[in-house]
Write a structure and sequence with these properties.
With 128 residues, the chain is mostly helical. The protein has 2 domains: 1-58, Multidrug-efflux Transporter Regulator, Chain: A, Domain 2 (Orthogonal Bundle); 76-128. Helices cover 66% and strands 3% of the residues. It has 6 helices and 2 strands. Strands 1-2 form a two-stranded antiparallel sheet. Strand 1 and strand 2 form a beta hairpin. The longest helix has 34 residues, at 78-111. It is elongated, with a radius of gyration of 23 Å. The protein starts with a helix and ends with a helix. It comes from Aquibium pacificus.
């Protein structure tokens, strides 16, 4: 398949595919005589794995490690579990922060009397 077909199949931008090739997360494809990249189903599966991992917030270092582990089906999955737990911890931390932000924004909005800017609680809260 061509790069455009791979892009559509995996839901990944063509430039992202080229970037993944440059940094080595996706292997360099074979090329036709005219220089066009040619991808196999394995490339599509690998790209799908990468996209799903990135959607879950894993950084490229973790994606590389997870890809390497995927190639060792008999190995322990302890490292994969550790990586996923670290990502879960990070997500939970961000959720706590977002809940605090939500509470502060709710307070600011609910205290605003929608009068003049000189008396605006939103402007006052942001200024402090």
């Amino acid at each position: 398949m061509q790069i455009g077909d791979l892009s559509r199949a995996a839901g990944v931008n063509i430039e992202t595919i080229r970037y993944y090739e440059r940094i080595g997360v996706l292997p360099k494809p074979s090329r036709e005589v005219n220089g066009r990249r040619t991808y196999a189903e394995d490339d599509a599966r690998r790209l799908g794995f990468i996209r799903h991992a990135r959607d879950l917030g894993f950084d490229l270092t973790d994606v590389r490690t997870l890809l390497a582990l995927q190639e060792q089906p008999e190995a322990s999955c302890e490292e994969a579990s550790r990586i996923a737990q670290a990502q879960l911890d990070e997500v939970e931390s961000r959720i706590r922060l977002l809940l605090k932000l939500k509470a502060e924004l709710f307070r600011m909005v609910s205290e605003c009397r929608k009068g003049i800017v000189a008396e605006c609680r939103v402007i006052e809260a942001l200024s402090n």
